[in-house]
Amino acid sequence: MTDTAIPVTTRKDWTSDQEVRWCPGCGDYSILAAVQLLMPDLGIRREDTVFVSGIGCAARFPYYMNTYGMHTIHGRAPAIATGLALARPDLHVFVVSGDGDALSIGGNHLIHALRRNVNITILLFNNQIYGLTKGQYSPTSEVGKVTKSTPFGSLDTPFNPVSVAIGAEATFVARTHDMDRRHMMEVIQRAFEHRGASLVEIYQNCNVFNDGAFETITAKVNRDDMLIPLRHAEPIRFGADGGKGVVIDSQRGAHIVDVADVGEAALLVHDETRDDPSVAFMLSRLARGPQEPTPIGVFRDVVRPDYGEGVSSQIAAAQAERGPGELAALLRSGATWDVN
Amino acid sequence: MTDTTHRARAPEIVDRVIIRFAGDSGDGMQLTGDRFTTTSALYGNDLATLPDFPAEIRAPAGTLAGVSAFQVHISDHDITTPGDAPNVLVAMNPAALRSQIGRVAPGATIILNADAFDERHLTKAGYAADPRHDGSLDAYTLYEVPMTSLTKGAVTPLGIKPRDAERSKNFFALGLISWMYTRPVEPTLEWIARRFVAKPDVAEANTAAFKAGHAFGETAELFDHPYEIQPAVLPAGTYTNINGNTALAWGLVAASQLSKMPLFLGSYPITPASDILHELSKHKNFGVRTLQAEDEIAGIGAAVGAAYGGHLGVTTTSGPGMALKAETMGLVVNLELPLLVIDIQRGGPSTGLPTKTEQADLLMAYYGRHGEAPLPIVAPKSPSHCFEVAIEAARIALEYRTPVVVLSDGYLANGTEPWKLPDVDALPDLTVTFATEANHVGDDGEPVFWPYVRDPETLARSWALPGTPGLMHRIGGLEKEEGSGNVSYDPANHELMVRLRADKVAGIADSIPDVEVTGDVEDAELLVLGWGSTWGAIDGAMSRAREAGHRIAHAHLVHLNPFPRNLGDVLRRYPRVLVPEMNLGQLSRLVRAEYLVDARSVSKVRGLPFTAAELEQAIVDQLKDQA
Question: How far apart are CA A290 and CA A219, in angstroms?
């Protein structure tokens, strides 16, 4: 079976027969389309692919993919995916989550899946709101957000998902947004190809409860000035004519400059593979929220042993050393005596 | 004088003895008890043990809170409990004496470490006066042995610092008791050499202390003569001494082999369940994967993920952890996937008594989830029985595609007994048949796989593993349409599914044996109905009550949900039903509701198992009450 060539597929082959039930105009549609369009390019079989989700609007995603899938309970998808990935290293395991699912109720599982470097691809749809429960503020909502549960404005400092992931020892961290299909496909493909845990934050518009949350940076007319594309081994610059750039100095850390003021040679050259996460972290702090120029693309892509490979190799080593286990011998492994 | 020193002090034969070792948590009493037990097992005695230790790793030395005890019952005949009142108490300090003396029957032997009975230790233990001299121990045979100084005397010549030398005093005590009960010394000496191979000076010190203790018994004029307990007559076979957690771990390994599914344990450390994680993590050559998860929920979550992938998924925990796993257990009821949830019960609620035993999670296992979420429950009755029950739980889970709860407890987990090793070739085959092809024709006439097409007999759903070509499907926690497994909010479908899940679990009764009745099966005046670890104490109590002329029967449930088919008939067959439990009457409530019988509860919630004497009394009282 594995000897045969991977069949050529199209988006249709990866699309299930289930009717998609997100609100009309939801950003989730464009993410679904990007993923379904990407799958035929990944060189994998549908039956070897599993989408695991928790609870929330994003968590309905697996129903729409013609793969194996499990829609589980709130926040727990990274834990469940961890068990599946460890048990079945032959599978390609995706986790689809939202900001509430991944960073609130499931925050613990997310950070531990990342630090263990389990071989899973996590797509975190961040719309900065609770949609399925009809509009409460989320752990990524901006301070002062007025919602049904915070009529006087929220008091909570939000999480920056990219900063959280880098702080949690993630080996692959990226950001993209639902208005740019090509960028989404590029970044998600990179995340898929990464060995170990990868996290992609996807800015996603909830047009019902938080419409336009990312418009300042993702609207076509604003993108050039407000999105900072990160490209490995290239100086970080943006703006219509590339007139803005990012530098690091010892006093102010990473900050935005006019290239004309500092000269091109002074710009920070992006290095995804830098083992020390502090520069990637600084980049994740460039924007305090999606109203300021915001880096998108791959922040960090470093090599660290994949947890599942470690688990499998310990088993292989034990079997090589002791041979496959024999039950009768196990039962006699303590002190025994015979009664005649 | 020469007469006495050379007098052949022949051992006196006794049929059984209960010895309790007690000292500070740091004194090594569990190790001492464990070594004495192993030697006795190898010698051929029947035995049962009860480790009894505090939750604190090292409470302040010399205090009552820090006392750690180990009770062992050895005999030349078949026994089922660690014994009621000890015949011998070894107390390493005043706190050990004060905390344990209430358990010791008058006339028993007390061996004290005399060196520890100084003013400081006496005060710490809360003694106003030295109990050795105030008459309070007059009812006992008291031996005062300066164990600390004798140990130092034996060990310091080896060049070991006095402070380190003192640590070997538990081996001195072990040597002394080994002489008193005529235990062979070789197994202990060999064990010391093996265990401390990396620390030769510790091995040497412990060996010297052990030998000194043994020699002290032999040469000191203190003891009149040693005792001997002959090997018990047990069925022929190969035996090992085993505790419940090890037996459970081995049962899980066995179930994995029998089902040809790799074992996956997702677990979070919790007393008294952690030893199962420790044990299974050693057996990677059996293909066992263990994940020490970030929390209890992740432990079961990872096990669910592995089960979905075709592994034998297991999570192990105690009561607080099972409470956290409740939502995931409900998910698995809905997913209809096999999963084992193993709860080593301890005293609750909340943190409760982490190292003490209780049986108060039965109703949580039954009802502790939202919605109608029935699942099967099984419970082992003795330490070695945990092996068999682990396999039975796996059988039910795999055959019926359901989570199964195993209710063990702290007493079974740590208590030991000799176990006649089973013939591994006679263990049941647990092979699962996975779906490999479509099982339905879609509206478009094309073959399709429906994950909720059921086996008409068992109601188990079709199970296709990821990786199977053409059978891609999605499952989840939302209510599913029967057959297709698609999300469905249809009212009639929901009722159908709720009833199907309940019927599936109820139908498991077709695959389990009738509950067996022992004792006066035909004409008992009273039936004792038990479950779990109370089996040994009930069995002992019934024997005594029958010897006293009462007609008693005993039925013991291994399957708690569903109940065996004949349980109602059994309960109605006897005029009185008594249900001893280490809770406030959970099984008795269930059987009263289910069968409308006047089952009377006997409760004990002291963190300790019932003694046979307590249950014998309860039986006698019950007969009197209703006479």
Answer: 12
pLDDT tens digits, B440-454: 999 999 999 999 999
* Residues B198-228 pLDDT 10s: 999 999 999 999 999 999 999 987 888 899 9
Q: Which of A110, A330, A338 is the mutation pick for testing B, counting most B CBs within 10 A?
A: A330
Return the residue matching tokens 């209510």. Answer: B479
B 445-474 near A (Cβ less than 8 A): 466-474
ipTM score of the complex? 0.97
For residues B152, B156, B162, B165, the Cα torsion angle rounded to the nearest 10 degrees is -60
Contact A115/B at CB under 8 A: no
Single pTM value for the model: 0.95
Position B538, amino acid: I
For the stretch A145-199, pLDDT in tens is 999 999 999 999 999 999 999 999 999 999 999 999 999 999 999 999 999 999 9
Locate tokens 């008291």: which residue? Answer: B142
The answer to whether B257 contacts chain A (CB < 8 Å) is yes
Q: In what order do the strands lie in the sheet with B339-345?
A: B289-292, B263-267, B312-317, B339-345, B403-409, B377-378, B559-561
Distance CA(A66)–CA(A18), nearest Å, equals 9
Query: B89: helix, coil or strand?
Result: strand
- B335 near A CB under 8 A: yes
Q: What is the DSSP string of A197-245?
A: -EEEEEE---TTTSTTTTHHHHSHHHHHHHEEEE-TTSB-EESTTS-EE
State pLDDT tens for residues B318-343. Answer: 999 999 999 999 999 999 999 999 99
* DSSP code string of A168-209: TT-SEEEEEETT-HHHHHHHHHHHHHSSS-EEEEEE---TTT
Distance from CA of B219 to the nearest CA of A (A): 31
Residue B192's nearest CA partner among B210, B167, B180, B179 is B210
Confidence of residue B587 (pLDDT cuts 50, 70, 90): very high
Q: Which of B240, B287, B313 sits opposite A336 (nearest CB)?
A: B240
Pick from B373, B74, B8: which is nearest to B225 by CA?
B8
* Residue A263 buriedness (CB in 10 A; 0-12 / 13-18 / 19+): exposed
A318 in helix, strand or coil? helix
Question: What pLDDT score does A3 carry?
Answer: 54
Which candidate, A244, A193, A66, places its Cα nearest to that of B469? A66
From the number of C-beta atoms within 10 Å of its C-beta (0-12, 13-18, 19+), residue B57 rates as: exposed
CB contact under 8 A, A1 and B262: no
Instruction: Count how many Cα atoms sit within 13 Å of the Cα of residue B72 in the half-sphere of its side chain.
Output: 30
